[in-house]
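Field log, afternoon session.

UNIT: design team B
ACTIVITY: writing a sequence onto a fixed backbone
BACKBONE:
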């Protein structure tokens, strides 16, 4: 998998190179092509936003807490069942 930091670094370098005051022939077209290329790469990488990642992390944490609580309840029920026998 391509390191997202590498793509970000390349994008930053292209932006700095193309943002100069001196306009080069085809500069706008090149900038548009680079932007489209990077966007296409991001789309293929299955990258999620930080907000989506944090939301899924919170859901996972709540699920883990519920599983642990259910495991404790099950252990208590099994113990009480063994005590009755």
């Amino acid at each position: 998998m391509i390191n997202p930091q590498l793509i970000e670094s390349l994008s930053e370098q292209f932006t700095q190179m193309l943002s100069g005051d001196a306009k080069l022939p085809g500069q706008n077209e090149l900038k548009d092509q680079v932007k489209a290329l990077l966007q296409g790469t991001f789309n293929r990488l299955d990258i999620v936003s930080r907000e989506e990642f944090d939301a899924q992390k919170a859901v996972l944490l709540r699920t883990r807490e519920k599983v642990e609580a259910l495991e404790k309840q099950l252990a208590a029920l099994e113990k009480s069942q063994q005590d009755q026998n």
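LOG NOTE: The two ends are 57 Å apart (CA to CA).
NEXT ACTIVITY: expression trials, pending approval
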